[in-house]
UniProtKB/TrEMBL annotation:
InterPro entries: AB_hydrolase_fold, Peptidase_S28. The keyword Plastid does not apply. GO terms for molecular function: dipeptidyl-peptidase activity; serine-type exopeptidase activity. PANTHER family: LYSOSOMAL PRO-X CARBOXYPEPTIDASE (PTHR11010:SF38), PROTEASE S28 PRO-X CARBOXYPEPTIDASE-RELATED (PTHR11010). Signal peptide: none annotated. It comes from the Eukaryota. This is Uncharacterized protein. Belongs to the peptidase S28 family. It holds the Pfam family Peptidase_S28. The keyword rRNA-binding does not apply. Keywords: Glycoprotein, Hydrolase, Protease, Signal.
Length: 67
């Protein structure tokens, strides 16, 4: 299985999230300035750059995994 773990440091649940990439198919993507599910919500002009970058990383990973 391939799973991308995004973890916002402002998320109160972040201590239970994946913080370390343990295998290439299980990457951890830190989202500095991100809150709970921030990267999974619809795009907003107020999104911090880290959220935009995390979304781009996840899209790139999924494209790689399904190609």
């Amino acid at each position: 299985s391939n799973i991308a773990f995004t973890n916002g440091n402002l998320d109160p649940w972040s201590s239970g999230g994946g913080r370390t990439t343990v295998a290439p198919c299980l990457p951890a993507i830190p989202v500095f300035g991100g809150a709970h599910h921030h990267d999974l919500r619809a795009a907003n002009k107020a999104d911090p750059p880290s959220v935009l970058q995390a979304r781009q990383q996840v899209v790139a990973l999924i494209e790689k995994w399904i190609s």
